[in-house]
Write a structure and sequence with these properties.
The chain is of the alpha/beta class and about 450 residues long. The protein folds into two domains: about 290 residues, no CATH class; about 120 residues, no CATH class. Helix content is about 40%, strand content about 15%. It has 19 helices and twelve strands. The protein has a ten-stranded mixed sheet with strand order 5-4-1-2-3-8-7-6-9-12, with helices on both faces. A two-stranded antiparallel sheet has the order 10-11. The longest helix has 20 residues. The N and C termini lie far apart (about 65 Å).
Length: about 450
Amino acid sequence: MNKALFINAKTSESGVKINLLNHNYNITYPKKIWAGLPLHFKKIFLDNLAYASTNFLPLMLDKNKISYNTNPPILENLLYKNVLLDLLNCERGDHKQHLTYVKNFYNLEFIFSSQESSLLKSTDWEKIKTNEKTVIVPFTFGKESLATVALCQEIGLEPILVYCQEPSQPYEEKYKLKALKKFSQEFGLTYYFLKNEPGKFRYGKAFNLKNPTEIGWGTQTTNLALMMLPFAYHHQAKYILFGNEYSNNEFNWKNGWKEWLSYDQTNENIINQDNMVRLLSNDQVRIRSTFQPLEEINIFFLLHHRYPEYGKYQFSCIAEDPLTKNSQWCHKCYKCSLMFLFAECCRIDYQKIGFKKNLLHLPSMYDHYFGKKFAAGSNKELDFSFYILHNRQHQSNYLKQFKKEKLPQTKSWSHYLKYYTAKKPFTNLPEKFENKMLKIFTEELDHFKNAISK
């Protein structure tokens, strides 16, 4: 059997063009960002970004080879590892037999146009003197990116916002582009839009797959890390900041194998991402995380308690269904249900952040917790959140279900309270701003403890 997928990638006047199956997928940068990059850097960038954007596609398309017209990427091993360690979670999401994807990916044959990788020339970045106070924020309007921007502005950093298109989520772009202009004007921020047509590979939407797949989603932040480099070059930014919460490090055991819930956002992979951008920037740019010591609900609380003027912009909906009129939420997806639950736990008025309905009164909103529906994220945090509402004697059918089905299996309230009101171990905060950040985290964890204990 010889079933190869052919990738023809090249640079263009405004970015990178990836051709496969007779179709072009463009990554399009603002002209002033792309035009100023050294030509040799663009070549190395192409080798690595083409591979990062496509190396998982043979699994979607039932191929056993993938052939590139580009050179072997110097980041191949790190990018390969990211996909490999995400595949067990994809198997669970796609209801596939254990190790099916892992075996197929392991056996893939990768073919390149030469045997030699292109290496960065020191002259490519020699004119760049990065500024530690200038940071690039991959911006989504999610709670982490909003809180990152607010935190940066409080401690004296200058965040540059880059909203990267996610075409597999068709109902978000129009809303976010309009909100991005308003948000940036309100807070005096520089922002960009990055057109990312390879985003159509998510769920296999570019190929009209009969059965959507989770393959490829688990490389999102790693690909973003690479795609932010041209913006870092232009703005001479020292850091690219992600807002990964601590629960991203969680994993399950599956037949003796670690099944990571979101490997690309683990502490370990932040180190890998950091090494990637260091290699492609002559050690000028670093990847760091803003919220490693906190859990997801802590970040949600910090945003809406400390920075409510930023929090009103939150958009965390998956946006696979149309948004509710005059709202940034579809009121149907698991992210909507989770954010609504957090709002109730943290005593945040859900109407002030755009919700039009009480999701705890709607059926089937929490099937990913009480049923078998697949969703990313930590069930421990759901245990904790429902426990908070149980302690308040919150009235809904979900709380009755929690009391009957979940509460007998959960740990004690004191265990959850201690765990979710304490800072977690961290390795990747921006070093010179670490103390300021930790002081803010300590203050907000104290406020959080008071809010959930009343």
